[in-house]
Amino acid sequence: MRKITIAGNWKLNKTPSETVALIEALKSEVKDVSTVNMIVCPPFTSLTEAAKILKGINIALGAQNVYWEDAGAFTGEVSAPMLKDAGVSYVIIGHSERRQYFGETNDTVNKRTKKALEHGLSAIVCVGETLEDREAGKTFDVVKDHVTGSLAGLSNDNMTKVIIAYEPVWAIGTGKTATPEQAQEVHQYIREVLKDMFNDDVANNTIIQYGGSMKPENAAELLGQPDIDGGLIGGASLKADAFAAIIKAKA
Ligand code: PGA
Question: Does the predicted model carry a pTM greater than 0.70?
Fold first, then answer.
């Protein structure tokens, strides 16, 4: 059974003190939720503060990137052992903003994913087409390329710690959501790709989140699709009440 998994991608938002305030507010909103995996992914500078107040709480902590070496002369990077020690258990890898603005490729996403898994972190690997891709009829090709390239060389066992986030780039931060049918179609396709790459079990058991303007008003319908197992939430995760409403949409 795939458990609904909702992650908040805070992006470049919230100082450490603002992080504490937001998590405190969220904690009281979701204290009775037990049927949903909940994850918050604040910026690196907030992780240790966040870890302190999440102790003993059923909200997991995630980071927004990880480097593919453990240590060394790599100015500006953060490693998997650093994240582990800070109390992190998930890491978002290959978000479209990283692919678009920071030169991330399938190859670097693959290296980061392998390193995260090697250190026992779970990876939330992001894939998704641009508007141009969609209009050119290339959605499935691009998604297949992202999935096969980003997860190349992983074992079936590795895949128990991988979540895929399908995020159509044209829906991110734009207020334009994919329709439940558009999202479902791609999620189902991702399972076919996983079946070819791995096996039936991996295809059936991998959590596939939808991301892109998910909000309280559309969450229940999206999460009601058979192959949509959760959400990666940007804007709406910055407000405790909105994020909690998404979490509770199917709880
Ligand atoms: P959004 O962002 O919910 O603000 O569209 C989603 C994401 O980029 O993960």
Answer: yes
**pLDDT tens figures, 170-215:** 999 888 889 999 999 999 999 999 999 999 999 999 999 999 999 9
Q: Which tokens is 20 given?
A: 């504490």
Contacts of residue 195, defined as CB under 8 A and 6 or more positions apart, other chains included, come to 202, 203
**Predicted pLDDT of residue 176:** 85
The one catalytic residue in 49, 95, 146, 187 is: 95
Backbone phi, psi, residue 6, to 5°? -115, 120
Active site residue 146: no
Residues 6+ apart with CB under 8 A from 141: 133
- Plot region of 36 (φ>0 → left; ψ -120 to 50 → alpha; else → beta): beta
Query: The tokens 């998910």 sit on which residue?
Result: 214
For residue 135, the SS3 value is helix
Instruction: Verify whether ligand 1 is closer than 6 Å to residue 62 (CB atom).
Output: no
Concatenated DSSP letters of 21-47: HHHHHHHHHHTT--SSEEEEE--GGGH
